[in-house]
Amino acid sequence: MTYRVFTATCAVTFVAAFAFVSAQQKTAEKAAAVPTFTKDVAPILYKNCVMCHRAGEIAPMPLLTFEDARPYAQAILEEVGAGHMPPWHAEAPEGTFTNERRLSAAEKDTLLKWAGGGAPKGDPRDMPALPTFTEGWQLGKPDQVVEMSEAFPVPASGAVAYEYFYLPTNFTEAKWVKSIEVRPGVRAAVHHVLVFYRAVPDRPRLPAVVRGNPEQNRLPPPQFGAAPPKASATGQPGESQRLIATYAPGTNPQVMPEGTALRLEPGGVIELQVHYTAFGEAVKDRTRVGITFAKDASPREVRASNFLNATLVLPAGAKDVKVDAETNFVADATVWGIFPHTHLRGTRWQYVLELPDGTKKIILDVPRYDFQWQTYYMFKQPLQIPAGAKLVSSAWYDNSTGNKSNPDPKIDVRWGDQTWEEMQYTGLLYSPAIKTTTAAGRR
Fold this sequence. Notes:
23 strands, 17% helix, globular
């Protein structure tokens, strides 16, 4: 009898001990399955996030260190899980665009497991080296910086007319430009910046191969006492004006595709069209433009253009209003990138290419347009468009009370400069097609 009791007691003790060890093993396995910041998370953040999530950039908090990121673990779980971060709004297979801001499935899974599993730090020895940045510039130190000669005072309230600033470049010879980065002095006050180059062409220009609808492109008269740009910035006869860069909230610096560049004639002036928006605090802005020159001695020239529909009308309270615009190709062209732009009522965009034989195909679909994260969508495989084709842009707007960003759902909305008005505007980067001169294909 005593032996049996002892045996039973031993069995119970063994089972309990086995259960305890098994539970410990499961706990250890579960802990080991949770990614750590130093080994797993930091490399993902450095690759995809810290370009914006660092001091002086557009994001509201840095994510460079564990101490930076740990307080925002829940926010990372929610934003990454919902697909809000990184901010990418086009619907297309991965790899369609060169400037995609998106995580791979594995990277997303790692961040979600880390943030949802207690957000452990991990072994400090696993921490990768901090990435290096040039303070004040996303693309590194520019070859040349031009800036406003003095700061512009933006009031705390009220409408601010478009302002024009003229920045001499002092170019003594033609320059091939690889990238342009616009840096507002006070980002919250700058709605957008259009960068133009004004100079006397020193050689026959490449032909303009896109032509928008004249009726849609006709802008209404300026409002709020806006002063038009100067007729001439250099004082030279024959001066021309060309759009070369665009900045809007969330826009990346513009980098020309491999083997291409913008060509700027000597002696030119950079003209900034700056749209300021009062945000409740009086500030002074001094916007800068950083220019990097191409290393290629003979790149293919890129041209910037745009098309729009200034006749839009959004009825009060209307939830899903579609507005189209179009541009025609009068010669063969290569399209490198497309930039859709609306204000606070814009919800989505779609671009359809209509070929001369009547074939139609969607080339860009942006079902989740976000005014705060505007993007120049740069194609990895640029579009080869034949003469006679037409590009039709469609933008949808929500002017109802259901749009939380709507400034006033009780009014009809038309084209206007201010954010409480609307735009239907598209920027294009393109090149005229390269013609061959012999059967062998010599350029």
